[in-house]
């Protein structure tokens, strides 16, 4: 089976062609600057060099047309005809309370996605554009939606409700939804396999650390809590997002700085976090380059790791213990300093790093805990696209029965 995985953003379309039966990627790429001058398609067929094409790409439909064109090309393609694409799997950020798993996309499903736009106004509209474009360009090909929020639908009410009037939850759906669910699900499953134990026996804390960052408490294979909330703004400090703060702060800032709600949203999502504190960059690599010489870069790093440490401790308490901690995402996989600082002084929980293994520049899945550590510390590269492809194959295979 060949699955085209699409992740449509506001001005980009990331894609990957996967054979889920062999769990093998055939090609991947991204179309950037959709609707702007200088749009670029960057494409790489597995085992070959990256190629870049530029053109006038006005909308998501045209972007996916470009993608299909290069997938069919003689030099860089991996299929000879569009009919070889058996299904399309779409990343969808928000599925509300309705979707607790991946689903075949129908008109009813799309209507529910549109109802979730209020919860994810920056993400669900482009997700829907990608779905509509794929449906037009690949008529009759099954389309599957895989939701970032679905994995966290196992959270109990006491974990996902806020201390607000209950009527606001019933009327407006105000609750914790959580995000990065596909990643948390993938790496927790991989952790269980690495440990050679059923996930139903394990308590795992997964830390997805990139420009967006979240932690999750996964008890016996199910998410029972996660740091992101009603939106991806809550929780850990991130590249440009503030993470947790006293809600009265923003009311005070709006009053003092005469900000509109849109201004405040931009401040919290685009100008806070690492970039806001350091004044240097939202990129952890640049922060770490100046960690020893720039006081504000060090401060930003210390806030990031301190908050992560607090969540690890909180989730160990919430689960009554922890068997493994997993680091994933660009920062989680590559920053030994983040891992070291976030786990420092947690020996009382049975967590002990092997500092030599932690500092090694090796790639791929690895155990970086000391031999005597009571808690395994693992680095596991995430593969959300594979999860989307696998779910898509499972749903489409059921249609054929």
Automatic annotation (TrEMBL):
The active site of this protein is located at: 148
Cofactor(s) in the UniProt record: Mg(2+); Mn(2+)
Report the EC code(s) recorded for this entry. Answer: 2.7.2.1
What keywords tag this UniProt record? ATP-binding, Cytoplasm, Kinase, Magnesium, Metal-binding, Nucleotide-binding, Transferase
Query: Which compartments does it reside in?
Result: Cytoplasm
Provide the leader sequence positions: none
The pathway noted for it is: Metabolic intermediate biosynthesis; acetyl-CoA biosynthesis; acetyl-CoA from acetate: step 1/2
Q: Which residues bind Mg(2+)?
A: 7, 384
Q: Can you list the GO cellular component terms from the UniProt entry?
A: cytoplasm
From what superkingdom does this record's organism come? Bacteria
How the cofactor is bound: the record states:
Mg(2+). Can also accept Mn(2+).
Residues flagged as site, Transition state stabilizer: 180, 241
Residues annotated to bind substrate: 91
ATP-binding keyword on record: yes
User: GO terms for biological process?
Assistant: acetate metabolic process; acetyl-CoA biosynthetic process
Give the family per the record: Belongs to the acetokinase family.
Q: What does this protein do?
A: Catalyzes the formation of acetyl phosphate from acetate and ATP. Can also catalyze the reverse reaction.
Give the quaternary structure. Homodimer.
The record's NCBIfam families line, in alphabetical order, gives: ackA
Descriptive protein name = Acetate kinase
Q: Which organism is it from?
A: Caldithrix abyssi DSM 13497
Gene for this protein?
A: ackA
């Amino acid at each position: 089976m060949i699955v085209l995985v699409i992740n449509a953003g506001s001005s980009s379309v990331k894609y990957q062609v996967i054979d889920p039966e062999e769990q093998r990627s055939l090609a991947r790429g991204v179309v950037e600057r959709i609707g702007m001058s200088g749009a670029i398609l960057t494409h790489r067929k597995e085992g070959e060099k990256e190629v870049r094409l530029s053109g006038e790409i006005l909308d998501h439909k045209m972007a996916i047309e470009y993608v299909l064109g290069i997938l069919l090309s003689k030099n860089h393609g991996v299929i000879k005809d569009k009919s070889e694409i058996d299904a399309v799997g779409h990343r969808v950020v928000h599925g509300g309370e309705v979707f607790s798993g991946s689903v075949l996309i129908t008109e009813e499903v799309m209507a529910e996605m549109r109802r979730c736009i209020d919860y994810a106004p920056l993400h669900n509209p482009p997700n829907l554009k990608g779905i509509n474009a794929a449906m037009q360009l690949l008529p009759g090909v099954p389309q599957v939606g895989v939701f970032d929020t679905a994995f966290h639908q196992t959270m109990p009410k006491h974990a996902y409700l806020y201390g607000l009037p209950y009527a606001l939850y019933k009327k407006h759906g105000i609750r914790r939804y959580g995000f990065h669910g596909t990643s948390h699900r993938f790496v927790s499953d991989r952790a269980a396999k690495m440990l050679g134990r059923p996930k139903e026996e394990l308590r795992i804390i997964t830390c997805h650390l990139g420009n967006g960052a979240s932690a999750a408490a996964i008890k016996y294979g199910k998410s029972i809590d996660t740091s992101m909330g009603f939106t991806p703004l809550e929780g850990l400090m991130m590249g440009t997002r503030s993470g947790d703060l006293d809600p009265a702060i923003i009311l005070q800032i709006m009053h003092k700085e005469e900000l509109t709600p849109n201004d405040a949203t931009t401040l919290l999502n685009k100008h806070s976090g690492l970039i806001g504190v350091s004044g240097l960059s939202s990129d952890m690599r640049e922060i770490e380059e100046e960690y020893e010489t720039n006081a504000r870069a060090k401060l930003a790093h210390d806030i990031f790791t301190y908050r992560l440490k607090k969540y690890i401790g909180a989730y160990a308490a919430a689960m009554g213990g922890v068997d493994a901690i997993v680091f994933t995402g660009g920062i989680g996989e590559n920053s030994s300093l983040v891992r070291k600082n976030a786990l420092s002084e947690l020996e009382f929980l049975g967590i002990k790093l092997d500092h030599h293994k932690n500092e090694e520049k090796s790639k791929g899945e690895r155990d970086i805990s000391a031999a005597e550590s009571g808690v395994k510390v693992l680095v596991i590269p995430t593969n959300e696209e594979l999860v989307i492809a696998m779910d898509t194959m499972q749903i489409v295979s059921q249609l054929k029965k």
